[in-house]
Amino acid sequence: MMTIQGCLGAFDTIYHHEFSEHLPWKASASKELGIHGVRNFFYGLIFASLGWVAWGGWLAWLFAAMLVGEVLLTLWDFVIEDQSRKLPASERITHTILAINYGVILCLLTPVLLGWAAMPTGFHLQSHGLWSWVMTLFAAGVSAWAVFDYLRSRRFRAPAKVPPLLLAHPNQRVLVTGGTGLIGSRLVQGLIDDGHEVSVLTRDKSKVAKFHGRLTAIDDLTQLRAVDVIINLAGESLSNGLWTKAKKRKLYSSRLDLTRDLVAWIAAAPEKPCHLINASAIGAYGHSDTLEFREDSPPGEPDLALDLCRQWEAVAQQATQHGVKVAVLRLGIVLSLEGGALAQMLFPFEFGGGGPMGSGRQWMSWIHIDDVVGLVGHLIDQGLEGPVNAVAPHPRQNRDFTRALGRAMHRPAIMPLPGFALKLLLGEMAETILLNGQKVLPARALATGYAFRHPDLDGALGDLLAGKM
């Protein structure tokens, strides 16, 4: 049963905490990581003791108190998790199985502890053959992670700063869809801090509890009053999961259906908004290893991303028929520790397993999340219409990007990830998102006077990772 507990715990730590949720890189998870560090320290002691040591006499009750302490730490962890993040279904199921299995372990250990209590007081060496070495393996692993988690919980001692938008026109009424996502969260908090009247359209109103300040949460457009600006960021993530037929349908429907609803609301509204800023992506250009794309460039090689982006943009443009300015924000690879492509890369790089993907020649047109927020403010202030590339001025090829990330993390970046392996694991998504790229330049942003906060990659990565390695 302890072996089952160890295997489940390792899966929960590696898959959920490190790979899926990226907890070591989220400021909001600092307290949770600290609890994990303390709990894992005691788990390591429990594994090692059950493998090799009997706690005799009154020490048996000290060991029992440590077992009960694990329960209390776990309950505290549950409370902190619910306050800081929404757990995926697989993590909740894993936690439930771990709790049940731990209860079985406590029952099975009761007679063992009574036997220890009858022994002379002291630590008595014992061996269970192969099982002792299995417990040693788990003790070493969980103890190492106790140190990792405790040290990484101290990365974020100050709350992450949200850059101000400083819009030229104060007191704007703004609706944000997708306002609890990666970009939306940073943008909504910035708008609130600037004093604007912010509404967030969300299916789960509990998610807005993380924002500091006054805003209105709605789950249906019929609840929306007049607004000046609509910022439409909602859409199913392209990089989350295999592109099955059901996933592809959701990629389209999550974008097109909501955008149609927004256009219909605009058509019926007695007071029209001035501006609709609709998200898109540089996937609208297709892919190419040789072409350079600006906003007026013809597309390269077509793929699903190109078709999806072009359809989404076409639906948004229908709002112009009702006198609304429509700007399309073609997003590149957004650099943030809270999610997105960079967060996916941090785990292998932190442990020295990072390197180029496929040939490494594919272009990565990136942008710091602070500049995404800044560009949204720029679009509103300038009243821009049409496509605007949300990318930094200096795109990099994948091999150069990974070297820069390795430098920023003080880790080697020499472990290549073959393209065929990515295709085998992730299918069409790997081909479209990871192995194909495009060199995109922010021509309109620069021409209209936007000053990038983080124009070069080394500076952007340094800003995000400073003091965290």
UniProtKB/TrEMBL annotation:
Name listed for the protein in its UniProt record: NAD dependent epimerase/dehydratase family protein
Keyword Transmembrane helix belongs to the record: yes
Domain of life, per lineage: Bacteria
Keywords: Membrane, Transmembrane, Transmembrane helix
Domain (NAD-dependent epimerase/dehydratase) ranges: 174-383
InterPro entries: DUF1731, Epimerase_deHydtase, NAD(P)-bd_dom_sf, SDR39U1
Residue stretches spanning the membrane: 58-76, 97-118, 130-151
Keyword Membrane: yes
Similarity remark: Belongs to the NAD(P)-dependent epimerase/dehydratase family. SDR39U1 subfamily.
